[in-house]
Amino acid sequence: MLVVTEEACRRVIGRAEAFAAVEGVFAAMARGAARNFPVLREALGHADAIYGVKSGFDAQGLVLGLKSGGYWPGNAARGLTNHQSVVILFDPDSGRPTAMVGGNHLTAMRTAAAAAVSIARLARADARVLGILGAGFQSAFQIRAALAQRPFERILAWNYHPEMLPRLAAAVADTGVPFESVSLDALGAAADVIITVTSSFAPQLMKAHVRPGTHLACMGTDTRGKQEVEPALLAAASVFTDEVAQAVSIGECQHAVAAGLLAEDAIIPLGAVVLGAHPGRRSEDEITLYDGTGIGLQDLAVAAVAARLARAQGLATEVDW
Ligand code: NAD
């Protein structure tokens, strides 16, 4: 069995590798060749932690495995990342474990890659202003992945905790793209693409903030009860997602569907756009919204690439099992 550390993952998985892996597995899902298994997610009643397991099987890529981990809110005070996870891959022919791969870097890369795939496929070609709600761990990864998809000329940022924004500005300063902290009104009035990546439990971005033609990538809502945008915004948009079942249960769609503002069968898997089975954006004025809930197959896809590249580059450790 291969052991691939977080450091090895950082060295072998960049934006291009993550983008290709995530886009590929979305297409495999849309073809019916890959499926996620039910998500397990529990409050531990210890250290305020949420622990979960996501798993799935890609019969086309022959990738079987799980990601186990969760959220330990006290970690940051100890200099650790709050989100902790590890991926285990199995040989689909025998069930034997083939690799244990660090999940922290991969989670950030695959989450940013999913939003980037949505921007590549759904944002207007002339998008030049990027808006972001959020300034936590994921935010800089999201900005960097988005900048690779369109020649953005400005970044407009808003966060519920404004004191976090200068750190985000510093983290992306090397991109050379001007970064401004603005009001939500100013952000919505100018942004062509808006990424939301917060742990909010109440809508921050309203329909009235967003202008026609905007693409939104809503990445923060991955749990029942979390919410970043007003349900009326989903009702006014063409809504895409990684997996419909997950979007209506733990994604941003949960609220609009429960309120009767969005029909489950109107939500389009992004993989259908990747395959060419759905046209994606149909007009310059359409609002498109990607509900990125985060699926196990994304983790497994990037972990399989990380294991392959780390082995090839001598960065993985082989252990007898
Ligand atoms: P983080 O803890 O580093 O940052 C949290 C962010 O949410 C900050 O911007 C913070 O100011 C904001 N926030 C906190 N409380 C808020 C509130 N009450 N109202 C509005 N905003 C609030 O988290 P992170 O690692 O950057 O992750 C951000 C979100 O993305 C989390 O909800 C996380 O669970 C989610 N996430 C989703 C995926 C996915 O695949 N969809 C993957 C990883 C993380």
Stretches where pLDDT is under 50 for at least 5 consecutive residues are none
CATH first level of the largest domain: which class? Alpha Beta
- Proportion in helices: 25-40%
Helix and strand content put the structural class at: alpha/beta
Estimate what percentage of residues fall within beta strands. 25-35%
Number of helices: 11
Sheet bearing the most strands, described?
Answer: 8 strands, mixed
The domain tally reads 2
Average pLDDT for all residues: 97
- Proper CATH architecture of the largest domain: 3-Layer(aba) Sandwich
Provide the succession of SSEs. Answer: EHHEEEEEEHEHEHEHEEEEHEHHEHEHE
Question: Distance N terminus to C terminus?
Answer: 6 Å
Q: Could you say what the CATH topology of the largest domain is called?
A: Rossmann fold
* Oligomeric composition of the shown chains: single chain
Ions and ligands: nicotinamide-adenine-dinucleotide
Annotated CATH homologous superfamily of the largest domain? NAD(P)-binding Rossmann-like Domain
Which outline best applies?
globular
- Whole-number radius of gyration? 19 Å
Task: Walk me through the structure.
Helices cover about 35% and strands about 25% of the residues. With about 325 residues, it is α/β, with parallel strands linked by helices. The protein folds into 2 domains: about 1-105 and about 295-320, 2-Layer Sandwich (ornithine cyclodeaminase, domain 1); about 125-295, Rossmann fold, CATH 3.40.50.720. The strands form 3 sheets. Strands 1, 2, 3, 4, 5, 6, 7 and 18 form an 8-stranded mixed sheet that branches. β6 (about 85-90) and β7 form a beta hairpin. The radius of gyration is 19 Å and the shape is globular. About 50% of the residues are buried. The structure holds nicotinamide-adenine-dinucleotide (NAD).
